[in-house]
Write a structure and sequence with these properties.
Layout lengths: L1 E6 L6 H10 L3 H4 L2 H9 L3 E7 L2 E10 L4 E9 L8 H10 L7 E3 L6 H9 L21
Parallel strand pairs: 4-5
Antiparallel strand pairs: 1-2, 2-3, 3-4
Bound molecules: coenzyme A.
């Protein structure tokens, strides 16, 4: 049975986190466990999915709870993808931010990610409803 829960970072074991992130190939995170821990602890909302006891997915939000809601790190174990877990994680993660207008994210330039986020109501900044926007990013 799959469960979706809002949790705090100390409710998730670091070894199961590493296994989850590794399962989708996000080794940048798992090479620096301290940063991964701080990222989860500093998130505004952290949501996890479990199949029985096994961690199978995670989503988190960084927000000021008023004007901006940044969706970061949505991931589902490959063995459990395509069954609505990602959608359920995002819906639960965004629930506290229903009145926050600006919801943004960055993702890979792949058709699957585009379909996933479009199915959740996101659109590319260049074609956003209400007028096209320009999105900028800087990596240091
Ligand atoms: C992207 C990801 C989170 C989707 O999770 P998921 O549990 O498989 O997605 P869901 O089953 O909830 O799908 C929700 C919708 O997204 C779309 N979608 C999801 N995966 C898709 C794929 N591979 N190809 C096309 N559309 C896809 C579908 O439209 C689906 O809607 P449907 O029910 O009408 O078919 C998952 O594939 C994943 O963890 N990928 C690796 C990590 C990643 O790239 N994360 C996103 C970037 S931060």
């Amino acid at each position: 049975m799959t469960t979706i829960d809002v949790v705090t970072s100390d409710q998730v074991d670091i070894d199961e986190l590493i296994e989850l992130y590794d399962s989708v190939g996000w080794s940048v995170y798992t090479r620096d466990v301290g940063t991964l821990r701080r990222a989860l602890a500093g998130s505004s909302t952290l949501v996890i999915a479990r199949d029985s006891a096994v961690l199978i997915g995670l989503a988190r939000v960084v927000s000021d709870n008023a004007t901006i809601c940044y969706l970061q790190d949505v991931l589902v174990k490959p063995s459990h993808q395509g069954h609505g877990v990602g959608r359920a994680l995002v819906q639960a993660a965004l629930e506290p931010y229903a009145t926050v207008r600006q919801k943004v994210l960055l993702t890979d330039n792949e058709p699957a990610q585009r379909r996933f986020y479009e199915s959740l109501g996101y659109s590319e900044a260049a074609v956003a409803a209400g007028g096209p926007l320009r999105a900028f990013v800087r990596f240091d």
